[in-house]
TrEMBL record:
<dbReference type="Pfam" id="PF00107">
    <property type="entry name" value="ADH_zinc_N"/>
</dbReference>
<dbReference type="InterPro" id="IPR036291">
    <property type="entry name" value="NAD(P)-bd_dom_sf"/>
</dbReference>
<dbReference type="InterPro" id="IPR013154">
    <property type="entry name" value="ADH-like_N"/>
</dbReference>
<comment type="similarity">
    <text>Belongs to the zinc-containing alcohol dehydrogenase family.</text>
</comment>
<keyword id="KW-0560">Oxidoreductase</keyword>
<dbReference type="InterPro" id="IPR002328">
    <property type="entry name" value="ADH_Zn_CS"/>
</dbReference>
<dbReference type="Pfam" id="PF08240">
    <property type="entry name" value="ADH_N"/>
</dbReference>
<dbReference type="GO" id="GO:0016491">
    <property type="term" value="F:oxidoreductase activity"/>
</dbReference>
<dbReference type="InterPro" id="IPR011032">
    <property type="entry name" value="GroES-like_sf"/>
</dbReference>
<keyword id="KW-0479">Metal-binding</keyword>
<dbReference type="GO" id="GO:0008270">
    <property type="term" value="F:zinc ion binding"/>
</dbReference>
<dbReference type="InterPro" id="IPR020843">
    <property type="entry name" value="ER"/>
</dbReference>
<dbReference type="InterPro" id="IPR013149">
    <property type="entry name" value="ADH-like_C"/>
</dbReference>
<feature type="domain" description="Enoyl reductase (ER)">
    <location>
        <begin position="8"/>
        <end position="344"/>
    </location>
</feature>
<protein>
    <submittedName>
        <fullName>NAD(P)-dependent alcohol dehydrogenase</fullName>
    </submittedName>
</protein>
<dbReference type="InterPro" id="IPR050129">
    <property type="entry name" value="Zn_alcohol_dh"/>
</dbReference>
<keyword id="KW-0862">Zinc</keyword>
Length: 349
């Protein structure tokens, strides 16, 4: 079968012919419905250096945001329906530590001893005709469309986790949230904030069309550049935003978030754009403002995200590409030309 392979550090991926995998004990073979192209792959392909994360050493098949139909069950698997559609929880931890048993494989206590970080992250992912995943990583989609659902596995789950942890900052009325970066994750982030909070949402991006999309979803937009922080503060009546979510994470956007946050507010950095240190100073930081980063989410939260999708509260903006067009989709992502999410559909619609 064909697969999109990460073949080396600082190297563009290739489409190669590989063997169709077979599910081992406790695993399931999925016929891939959709595999999202996440901006993290751009970092993995072009920015990561050898030695940074040995679990993600090439070569492997990309695609950590997947959905598909159960095609074959490995030994001992029960409760998975052949032919039914599932969303895939991508992180794969040891399965037995405290983090994994609460469904948070992202923070597995034995991660360093694992051979891979997740599906499409060191272990073969979903940008192929078929993918093998552990049965415990499957979230049933029922009648919901699995192709449009694919982005939920990361572009939905990651902002959901970040926003859920910030909810105490957004409760109590008269609250403001800031969303920086309105791509795959950011546009779903706006929808999740709208559905879960009464906060006024302020959003920003370099791209006009992304800001127009956020306005349609109910956000107030503020363009970048001169006067941006002042404008954000003005909207909040001077106090600043109670929670900021940075889906870019470069020095400039972290700075915007930290300058826009209110006292006792929370800044969550999700974008992995900044691999160098950030300078923090006592007197220019609002008192008790928290600065945290987050990584993906829990499988329990993925079930909640699927409920929101089924209820129409999350509608991913999807552009589909065939497996043969996957490299074009990655090039568009590198060039900043994807609106919403590019999803590879190996078997068509
Ligand atoms: P994307 O390419 O779909 O969207 C990024 C958006 O940010 C684009 O609309 C772009 O125009 C905008 N942007 C870029 N630079 C900007 C700037 N300086 N100011 C304002 N807007 C700017 O990317 P994505 O797939 O949504 O991923 C977003 C980020 O989140 C990436 O860095 C990705 O690696 C990271 N990520 C992190 C996690 C995690 O668990 N922490 C998970 C998935 C993705
Ligand atoms: Zn574990």
């Amino acid at each position: 079968m064909k697969a999109v392979r990460h073949i080396g550090y600082h190297t563009f991926p290739e489409i190669k012919e590989v063997e169709k995998p077979t599910p081992g004990p406790g695993e399931v073979l999925l016929k891939v419905a959709g595999a999202g192209a996440c901006h993290s792959d751009v970092a993995i392909l072009h920015e990561f250096d050898e030695g940074l994360n040995p679990q993600m050493d090439p070569e492997f098949t990309l695609g950590h945001e997947n959905s598909g139909w159960a095609e074959e069950l490995g030994a001992g698997v029960e409760g998975i329906e052949l032919g039914a559609a599932y969303l895939v929880y991508g992180p794969v931890g040891c399965g037995i530590c405290r983090a994994c048993t609460r469904g948070q494989d992202t923070y597995c206590e034995h991660a360093a001893a694992m051979d891979y970080a997740g599906i499409g992250l060191g272990r073969d992912g979903g940008m192929a005709e078929y993918v093998v995943v552990p049965a415990r990583n499957l979230v049933p989609l029922g009648d919901a469309d699995p192709i449009n659902a694919a982005p939920l596995a990361d572009a939905g789950l990651t902002p959901y986790h970040a926003i859920k942890l910030a909810l105490p900052h957004l409760s109590g009325g008269g609250k403001y949230a800031l969303v920086i970066g309105l791509g795959g994750l950011g546009l779903i982030g706006v929808q999740i904030l709208k559905a879960l909070t009464g906060a006024t949402i302020i959003a920003t991006d370099m791209k006009e069309d992304a800001m127009a999309e956020a306005e349609k979803l109910g956000a107030i937009t503020v363009p970048g550049g001169e006067g941006q922080v002042e404008r954000i503060r003005e909207i909040t009546g001077g106090k600043g935003v109670d929670a900021a979510f940075d889906f870019v994470g470069v020095g400039a956007t972290v700075g915007t978030a930290m300058k826009s946050v209110a006292r006792q507010g929370r800044v969550t950095i999700v974008g992995i754009g900044n691999l160098s240190p950030y300078e923090w100073a006592f007197l220019t930081t609002p008192y008790e403002a928290e600065l945290v980063n987050t990584y993906w989410g829990t499988v329990g939260e993925l079930h909640e995200v699927v409920d929101m999708y089924k209820a129409g509260q999350i509608v991913p903006q999807v552009a589909t590409y065939s497996l043969d067009q996957a490299l074009d989709a990655y090039q568009l992502l590198v060039d900043g030309k994807v609106s919403g999410r590019a999803v590879i559909v190996p078997h068509g619609h």
